[in-house]
Amino acid sequence: MTAKTHGFGIVGCGVIAPTHADAITRLDNAHVAAVCDLNEEAGKAFAEEWNCDYYKDLSEMVARDDIFACNILVPSGLHAKLGRVCAEAGKHVICTKPIDITLEAIDDLIAAADANGVKVGATHQNRNFPVYQRIKRAIEEGNLGDLLYGNAFVPWYRADEYYSQGWQGTWKMDGGGALMNQSIHYIDLLIWFMGDVAKVTGFADHLAHDIETEDCGTAALKFASGAQGLIQGTTCTYKGSPARIEIHGTKGNVLVVGDEVAIWDVEGEQEEYNPDAGMSITGASDPKGGMQENAVHSHMEQIGDMIAAVEEGREPTLNGQEARRAVEVILSIYISSQNAEVVELG
Questions:
Q1: pTM for this structure?
Q2: Which DSSP letter does residue 199 get?
Q3: Residues of the chain with CATH 3.40.50.720
Protein backbone atom coordinates (compact mmCIF):
# COMPACT_ATOMS: atom_id res chain seq x y z
CA MET A 1 0.00 0.00 0.00
CA THR A 2 1.25 3.48 -0.87
CA ALA A 3 2.18 5.65 2.10
CA LYS A 4 -0.44 8.24 2.96
CA THR A 5 1.74 11.14 1.89
CA HIS A 6 -0.77 13.84 1.03
CA GLY A 7 -2.19 15.76 3.97
CA PHE A 8 -5.54 17.49 3.59
CA GLY A 9 -6.89 20.38 5.61
CA ILE A 10 -10.65 20.57 5.98
CA VAL A 11 -12.06 24.09 6.23
CA GLY A 12 -15.46 23.96 7.90
CA CYS A 13 -16.88 20.89 9.65
CA GLY A 14 -20.55 21.11 8.72
CA VAL A 15 -22.88 18.55 7.14
CA ILE A 16 -20.69 17.60 4.18
CA ALA A 17 -17.38 17.47 6.09
CA PRO A 18 -17.63 13.81 7.23
CA THR A 19 -18.18 12.75 3.61
CA HIS A 20 -14.97 14.53 2.55
CA ALA A 21 -13.05 13.16 5.52
CA ASP A 22 -14.27 9.62 4.83
CA ALA A 23 -13.35 9.95 1.15
CA ILE A 24 -9.85 11.26 1.93
CA THR A 25 -9.22 8.55 4.51
CA ARG A 26 -10.15 5.80 2.04
CA LEU A 27 -7.50 6.96 -0.44
CA ASP A 28 -4.24 5.04 -0.19
CA ASN A 29 -2.14 8.18 -0.62
CA ALA A 30 -4.02 10.75 1.51
CA HIS A 31 -5.01 11.52 5.06
CA VAL A 32 -6.85 14.23 6.98
CA ALA A 33 -4.14 16.31 8.63
CA ALA A 34 -6.16 19.13 10.14
CA VAL A 35 -9.54 20.82 10.37
CA CYS A 36 -10.34 24.51 10.79
CA ASP A 37 -13.62 25.85 12.12
CA LEU A 38 -14.62 28.93 14.11
CA ASN A 39 -16.80 26.73 16.32
CA GLU A 40 -14.27 25.26 18.74
CA GLU A 41 -16.60 22.64 20.16
CA ALA A 42 -17.56 21.30 16.73
CA GLY A 43 -14.03 21.59 15.40
CA LYS A 44 -12.43 19.74 18.28
CA ALA A 45 -15.05 16.99 18.14
CA PHE A 46 -14.41 16.57 14.43
CA ALA A 47 -10.64 16.51 14.98
CA GLU A 48 -10.99 13.81 17.61
CA GLU A 49 -13.23 11.70 15.38
CA TRP A 50 -10.88 11.88 12.40
CA ASN A 51 -7.62 11.84 14.36
CA CYS A 52 -6.35 15.18 13.11
CA ASP A 53 -5.38 18.58 14.53
CA TYR A 54 -7.83 21.42 15.13
CA TYR A 55 -7.30 25.08 14.24
CA LYS A 56 -9.50 28.07 14.75
CA ASP A 57 -7.24 30.30 12.63
CA LEU A 58 -7.03 29.31 8.97
CA SER A 59 -3.73 31.13 8.45
CA GLU A 60 -2.15 28.93 11.12
CA MET A 61 -3.43 25.75 9.54
CA VAL A 62 -2.23 26.57 6.01
CA ALA A 63 1.21 27.52 7.36
CA ARG A 64 1.86 23.80 7.86
CA ASP A 65 4.21 22.24 5.34
CA ASP A 66 2.47 18.88 5.45
CA ILE A 67 -0.84 20.14 4.07
CA PHE A 68 -1.12 19.41 0.37
CA ALA A 69 -4.66 20.68 -0.28
CA CYS A 70 -7.59 22.27 1.50
CA ASN A 71 -11.23 21.24 1.15
CA ILE A 72 -13.41 24.35 1.45
CA LEU A 73 -16.70 23.31 3.09
CA VAL A 74 -18.00 26.57 4.55
CA PRO A 75 -21.10 28.55 3.44
CA SER A 76 -21.01 29.06 -0.31
CA GLY A 77 -20.37 32.79 -0.23
CA LEU A 78 -17.04 32.19 1.53
CA HIS A 79 -15.63 29.54 -0.81
CA ALA A 80 -13.48 31.76 -3.01
CA LYS A 81 -12.45 34.06 -0.16
CA LEU A 82 -11.09 31.24 2.00
CA GLY A 83 -9.91 29.29 -1.02
CA ARG A 84 -7.75 32.25 -1.96
CA VAL A 85 -6.15 32.24 1.50
CA CYS A 86 -5.24 28.60 0.96
CA ALA A 87 -3.99 29.16 -2.59
CA GLU A 88 -1.78 32.06 -1.50
CA ALA A 89 -0.26 29.73 1.09
CA GLY A 90 0.65 27.31 -1.69
CA LYS A 91 -2.14 24.79 -1.07
CA HIS A 92 -4.29 23.22 -3.76
CA VAL A 93 -7.98 24.00 -3.33
CA ILE A 94 -11.08 21.80 -3.58
CA CYS A 95 -14.43 23.54 -3.05
CA THR A 96 -17.70 21.80 -2.40
CA LYS A 97 -20.44 22.89 -4.77
CA PRO A 98 -20.99 25.59 -5.81
CA ILE A 99 -17.38 26.65 -6.27
CA ASP A 100 -18.67 30.11 -5.28
CA ILE A 101 -21.77 32.21 -5.87
CA THR A 102 -20.49 34.94 -8.22
CA LEU A 103 -18.46 34.69 -11.40
CA GLU A 104 -16.16 37.45 -10.15
CA ALA A 105 -15.29 35.49 -7.01
CA ILE A 106 -14.73 32.30 -9.00
CA ASP A 107 -12.47 34.06 -11.48
CA ASP A 108 -10.55 35.64 -8.61
CA LEU A 109 -9.97 32.23 -7.02
CA ILE A 110 -8.82 30.72 -10.32
CA ALA A 111 -6.45 33.64 -10.86
CA ALA A 112 -5.05 33.29 -7.32
CA ALA A 113 -4.42 29.59 -7.88
CA ASP A 114 -2.67 30.28 -11.19
CA ALA A 115 -0.55 33.02 -9.64
CA ASN A 116 0.60 30.72 -6.86
CA GLY A 117 1.21 27.63 -8.94
CA VAL A 118 -1.55 25.54 -7.39
CA LYS A 119 -4.68 23.90 -8.72
CA VAL A 120 -8.32 24.57 -7.93
CA GLY A 121 -11.21 22.20 -8.37
CA ALA A 122 -14.66 21.38 -7.07
CA THR A 123 -16.72 18.38 -6.05
CA HIS A 124 -19.87 17.63 -8.01
CA GLN A 125 -20.19 14.06 -6.83
CA ASN A 126 -23.10 13.05 -9.07
CA ARG A 127 -20.79 13.07 -12.10
CA ASN A 128 -19.04 10.00 -10.75
CA PHE A 129 -22.17 8.00 -9.98
CA PRO A 130 -22.14 4.91 -12.24
CA VAL A 131 -25.50 5.77 -13.82
CA TYR A 132 -24.29 9.18 -14.99
CA GLN A 133 -20.93 7.82 -16.11
CA ARG A 134 -22.91 5.38 -18.26
CA ILE A 135 -24.92 8.19 -19.86
CA LYS A 136 -21.78 10.23 -20.51
CA ARG A 137 -20.13 7.27 -22.24
CA ALA A 138 -23.22 6.64 -24.34
CA ILE A 139 -23.24 10.28 -25.48
CA GLU A 140 -19.51 10.36 -26.23
CA GLU A 141 -19.73 7.11 -28.19
CA GLY A 142 -22.64 8.47 -30.24
CA ASN A 143 -25.07 5.82 -29.06
CA LEU A 144 -27.83 8.38 -28.47
CA GLY A 145 -27.25 10.03 -31.84
CA ASP A 146 -27.58 13.79 -32.07
CA LEU A 147 -28.88 15.23 -28.82
CA LEU A 148 -32.22 16.98 -29.26
CA TYR A 149 -33.25 18.04 -25.77
CA GLY A 150 -32.45 17.38 -22.14
CA ASN A 151 -34.29 18.19 -18.92
CA ALA A 152 -33.48 18.29 -15.22
CA PHE A 153 -36.21 18.38 -12.57
CA VAL A 154 -35.42 18.56 -8.86
CA PRO A 155 -38.77 18.62 -6.97
CA TRP A 156 -37.32 18.59 -3.49
CA TYR A 157 -38.55 19.82 -0.12
CA ARG A 158 -36.84 21.61 2.75
CA ALA A 159 -38.61 22.40 6.01
CA ASP A 160 -38.63 25.91 7.44
CA GLU A 161 -36.13 24.73 10.05
CA TYR A 162 -33.56 24.16 7.31
CA TYR A 163 -33.56 27.87 6.57
CA SER A 164 -33.32 28.90 10.23
CA GLN A 165 -29.58 28.14 10.44
CA GLY A 166 -28.69 31.62 9.26
CA TRP A 167 -27.13 31.36 5.81
CA GLN A 168 -29.26 29.06 3.67
CA GLY A 169 -31.69 30.97 1.50
CA THR A 170 -29.71 34.23 1.66
CA TRP A 171 -28.18 36.05 -1.28
CA LYS A 172 -25.03 36.91 0.65
CA MET A 173 -24.00 33.39 1.66
CA ASP A 174 -26.14 30.94 -0.34
CA GLY A 175 -26.08 32.99 -3.54
CA GLY A 176 -29.54 31.70 -4.38
CA GLY A 177 -31.92 29.05 -3.20
CA ALA A 178 -33.27 25.85 -4.71
CA LEU A 179 -31.30 26.29 -7.94
CA MET A 180 -27.93 27.35 -6.50
CA ASN A 181 -27.88 25.06 -3.47
CA GLN A 182 -29.84 21.91 -4.29
CA SER A 183 -30.51 21.72 -8.04
CA ILE A 184 -26.96 22.64 -9.02
CA HIS A 185 -26.09 18.92 -8.82
CA TYR A 186 -28.43 18.16 -11.72
CA ILE A 187 -27.87 21.41 -13.59
CA ASP A 188 -24.18 20.51 -13.64
CA LEU A 189 -25.05 17.07 -15.03
CA LEU A 190 -27.32 18.54 -17.69
CA ILE A 191 -24.56 20.86 -18.93
CA TRP A 192 -22.02 18.03 -18.78
CA PHE A 193 -24.27 15.92 -20.99
CA MET A 194 -25.73 18.53 -23.34
CA GLY A 195 -22.86 21.02 -23.68
CA ASP A 196 -22.65 24.77 -23.27
CA VAL A 197 -25.80 26.83 -22.80
CA ALA A 198 -26.27 29.71 -25.24
CA LYS A 199 -29.49 31.30 -23.94
CA VAL A 200 -31.79 31.02 -20.93
CA THR A 201 -35.10 32.45 -19.86
CA GLY A 202 -36.71 31.69 -16.56
CA PHE A 203 -38.45 32.50 -13.31
CA ALA A 204 -37.23 32.30 -9.72
CA ASP A 205 -39.56 32.98 -6.78
CA HIS A 206 -40.06 32.12 -3.12
CA LEU A 207 -43.50 30.56 -3.01
CA ALA A 208 -43.71 28.67 0.28
CA HIS A 209 -40.79 29.81 2.48
CA ASP A 210 -40.06 33.16 4.05
CA ILE A 211 -36.59 33.50 2.54
CA GLU A 212 -34.72 36.00 0.38
CA THR A 213 -34.00 33.61 -2.47
CA GLU A 214 -36.08 31.21 -4.53
CA ASP A 215 -37.67 27.99 -3.38
CA CYS A 216 -38.92 27.43 -6.93
CA GLY A 217 -37.01 28.11 -10.14
CA THR A 218 -37.94 27.21 -13.71
CA ALA A 219 -36.02 27.86 -16.93
CA ALA A 220 -35.97 27.08 -20.63
CA LEU A 221 -32.56 26.62 -22.24
CA LYS A 222 -31.11 26.82 -25.73
CA PHE A 223 -27.82 24.97 -25.94
CA ALA A 224 -24.99 26.06 -28.20
CA SER A 225 -25.60 22.90 -30.25
CA GLY A 226 -29.14 24.05 -31.02
CA ALA A 227 -30.69 21.51 -28.63
CA GLN A 228 -33.25 22.63 -26.08
CA GLY A 229 -33.74 21.97 -22.39
CA LEU A 230 -35.74 22.59 -19.26
CA ILE A 231 -34.70 23.06 -15.64
CA GLN A 232 -37.01 23.14 -12.63
CA GLY A 233 -35.76 23.05 -9.06
CA THR A 234 -37.68 23.48 -5.84
CA THR A 235 -37.50 23.13 -2.09
CA CYS A 236 -41.26 23.59 -1.76
CA THR A 237 -42.59 20.35 -3.26
CA TYR A 238 -44.94 18.59 -0.83
CA LYS A 239 -42.88 15.86 0.89
CA GLY A 240 -40.30 16.07 -1.90
CA SER A 241 -39.89 13.74 -4.87
CA PRO A 242 -36.82 12.15 -6.48
CA ALA A 243 -34.82 14.24 -8.93
CA ARG A 244 -35.22 13.35 -12.60
CA ILE A 245 -32.91 13.89 -15.52
CA GLU A 246 -33.73 12.93 -19.08
CA ILE A 247 -31.68 13.00 -22.27
CA HIS A 248 -33.24 12.57 -25.70
CA GLY A 249 -31.36 12.01 -28.93
CA THR A 250 -32.09 10.84 -32.47
CA LYS A 251 -31.21 7.27 -31.46
CA GLY A 252 -32.42 6.99 -27.91
CA ASN A 253 -34.10 8.20 -24.75
CA VAL A 254 -32.75 7.93 -21.22
CA LEU A 255 -34.65 8.77 -18.03
CA VAL A 256 -33.04 8.63 -14.60
CA VAL A 257 -35.13 9.00 -11.43
CA GLY A 258 -33.50 9.30 -8.04
CA ASP A 259 -30.09 8.43 -9.56
CA GLU A 260 -31.44 5.13 -10.93
CA VAL A 261 -32.27 4.24 -14.53
CA ALA A 262 -36.03 4.33 -15.10
CA ILE A 263 -35.93 4.08 -18.91
CA TRP A 264 -33.03 3.16 -21.16
CA ASP A 265 -34.31 2.95 -24.73
CA VAL A 266 -31.35 3.16 -27.10
CA GLU A 267 -31.10 1.87 -30.65
CA GLY A 268 -29.38 -1.50 -30.83
CA GLU A 269 -29.47 -2.07 -27.07
CA GLN A 270 -31.79 -4.03 -24.83
CA GLU A 271 -34.53 -1.79 -23.51
CA GLU A 272 -34.62 -1.24 -19.75
CA TYR A 273 -37.66 -0.13 -17.76
CA ASN A 274 -37.68 0.19 -13.98
CA PRO A 275 -40.92 1.56 -12.50
CA ASP A 276 -39.39 1.48 -9.01
CA ALA A 277 -36.50 3.82 -9.86
CA GLY A 278 -36.00 6.51 -7.25
CA MET A 279 -37.67 4.67 -4.38
CA SER A 280 -34.42 4.44 -2.37
CA ILE A 281 -33.16 7.10 0.04
CA THR A 282 -32.40 10.43 -1.64
CA GLY A 283 -32.02 14.08 -0.74
CA ALA A 284 -35.59 14.85 -1.81
CA SER A 285 -36.65 15.93 1.67
CA ASP A 286 -33.59 15.23 3.84
CA PRO A 287 -30.43 17.35 3.35
CA LYS A 288 -28.38 14.34 4.49
CA GLY A 289 -30.33 11.81 2.44
CA GLY A 290 -28.01 11.84 -0.56
CA MET A 291 -24.82 11.35 1.44
CA GLN A 292 -24.74 7.60 1.05
CA GLU A 293 -22.00 5.23 -0.11
CA ASN A 294 -22.25 6.46 -3.71
CA ALA A 295 -21.49 10.00 -2.56
CA VAL A 296 -18.46 8.97 -0.50
CA HIS A 297 -17.03 6.91 -3.35
CA SER A 298 -17.60 9.74 -5.84
CA HIS A 299 -15.89 12.25 -3.54
CA MET A 300 -13.01 9.81 -3.20
CA GLU A 301 -12.63 9.64 -6.98
CA GLN A 302 -12.79 13.40 -7.44
CA ILE A 303 -10.39 14.16 -4.59
CA GLY A 304 -8.12 11.42 -5.90
CA ASP A 305 -8.23 13.08 -9.31
CA MET A 306 -6.85 16.28 -7.75
CA ILE A 307 -3.89 14.33 -6.39
CA ALA A 308 -3.36 12.66 -9.76
CA ALA A 309 -3.62 15.99 -11.58
CA VAL A 310 -0.84 17.47 -9.45
CA GLU A 311 1.36 14.40 -9.83
CA GLU A 312 0.78 14.24 -13.60
CA GLY A 313 1.06 17.97 -14.21
CA ARG A 314 -2.43 18.39 -15.63
CA GLU A 315 -5.65 20.15 -14.68
CA PRO A 316 -8.16 18.36 -12.45
CA THR A 317 -11.01 16.90 -14.48
CA LEU A 318 -13.46 19.12 -12.60
CA ASN A 319 -11.34 22.25 -12.42
CA GLY A 320 -12.37 25.79 -11.60
CA GLN A 321 -13.51 26.66 -15.11
CA GLU A 322 -15.58 23.49 -15.37
CA ALA A 323 -17.25 24.13 -12.00
CA ARG A 324 -17.96 27.72 -13.08
CA ARG A 325 -20.31 26.62 -15.88
CA ALA A 326 -23.29 25.62 -13.72
CA VAL A 327 -22.99 28.77 -11.63
CA GLU A 328 -23.07 30.92 -14.77
CA VAL A 329 -26.26 29.22 -15.94
CA ILE A 330 -27.97 29.64 -12.58
CA LEU A 331 -26.98 33.30 -12.29
CA SER A 332 -28.32 33.85 -15.80
CA ILE A 333 -31.66 32.36 -14.76
CA TYR A 334 -31.79 34.83 -11.88
CA ILE A 335 -31.03 37.74 -14.20
CA SER A 336 -33.70 36.55 -16.63
CA SER A 337 -36.26 36.32 -13.84
CA GLN A 338 -35.40 39.74 -12.42
CA ASN A 339 -35.37 41.53 -15.78
CA ALA A 340 -37.98 39.48 -17.66
CA GLU A 341 -35.59 38.88 -20.53
CA VAL A 342 -33.76 36.20 -22.46
CA VAL A 343 -30.15 36.10 -21.29
CA GLU A 344 -27.31 35.17 -23.62
CA LEU A 345 -24.33 33.46 -22.02
CA GLY A 346 -20.66 33.76 -22.83
A1: 0.96
A2: E
A3: 6-123
